[in-house]
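Practice problem 4.
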């Protein structure tokens, strides 16, 4: 049996091989750390779906509100949500008082390196409709959020910047299709008078150029306050006399008043359409907007009821 002496060529070769192996293992370990998805926490799934579409497999997106049966205005965050926010690299929220619970979580878990993007801050002040927080139904807000997310991801993970920019461009194309559908529907029903149980679709109504009636009552329902008898009577008259062609109702938030107005609209032959407050996890942002427009178009095209029970 031949044993290599210390300092012999065979021994030096084994040492180099051992050092190279250790170096490769260290590189692999570092690569695995670098490849770990960036944690993005969204207050609502609407913004979480945008982050998921831009970041792909390079992000881990957690949307705290994603159940369509949850009222975003009254959501209460859990301790698990607080831990996620504390660990997040990027937090997405709506603003305008829509998700104040997220603001409290951020204040309770300050992290200097964490980025926070607020959708309402990305919309010019003159486009904010009387404090209506449902800005996500303005396609330009979704696009602005996508641009901001892309910019952050390119800084946080420059190795995949080209992929992030390509995904943003794809979403930009999809938003263009949404805006085209808006123009088509606006031409089909120009200056349409509509109303709603609350202003969840208000920004889309404005984009369509339609007349939105009974805004005072809508705001009361949104804020959980009591509308005046005059506001209720005006809304009731609009439905009974068919001064409006469409009633938009929130499918996630129901009250006795909104239910009674919806039933009255159906009895009086006024078209109705249900709108959601945030994107279901199964859909992308642009698909969600297109779906709301398509369902609205179908509701307006459906044969009107006779209204025989309108005055019951």
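Answer key:
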């Amino acid at each position: 049996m031949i044993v290599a002496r210390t300092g012999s060529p065979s021994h030096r070769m084994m040492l180099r091989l051992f050092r190279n192996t250790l170096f490769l293992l260290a590189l692999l370990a570092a690569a695995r750390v670098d490849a770990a998805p960036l944690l993005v926490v969204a207050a609502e799934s609407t913004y979480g779906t945008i982050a998921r579409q831009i970041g792909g497999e390079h992000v881990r997106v957690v949307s705290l509100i994603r159940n369509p049966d949850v009222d975003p205005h009254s959501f209460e965050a859990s301790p698990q949500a607080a831990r996620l926010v504390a660990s997040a690299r990027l937090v997405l929220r709506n603003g305008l008082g829509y998700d104040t619970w997220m603001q409290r979580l951020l204040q309770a878990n300050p992290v200097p390196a964490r980025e926070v993007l607020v959708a309402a801050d990305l919309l010019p002040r003159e486009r904010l409709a009387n404090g209506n927080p449902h800005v996500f139904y303005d396609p330009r807000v979704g696009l602005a959020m996508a641009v901001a997310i892309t910019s952050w991801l390119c800084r946080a993970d420059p190795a995949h910047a080209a992929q992030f920019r390509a995904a943003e461009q794809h979403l930009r194309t999809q938003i263009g299709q949404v805006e085209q559908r808006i123009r088509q529907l606006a031409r089909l029903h120009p200056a349409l008078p509509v109303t709603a149980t609350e202003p969840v679709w208000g920004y889309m109504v404005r984009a369509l150029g339609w007349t939105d009636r009974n805004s005072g009552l809508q705001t009361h329902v949104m804020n959980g306050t009591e509308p005046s008898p005059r506001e209720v009577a005006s809304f009731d008259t609009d439905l009974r006399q068919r001064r409006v062609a469409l009633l938009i109702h929130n499918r996630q938030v129901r009250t006795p008043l909104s239910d009674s107005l919806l039933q009255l609209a159906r009895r009086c032959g006024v078209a109705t359409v249900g709108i959601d407050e945030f994107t279901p996890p199964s859909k992308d942002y642009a698909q969600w907007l297109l779906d709301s427009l398509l369902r609205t178009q179908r509701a307006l095209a459906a044969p009107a009821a006779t209204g025989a029970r309108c005055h019951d």
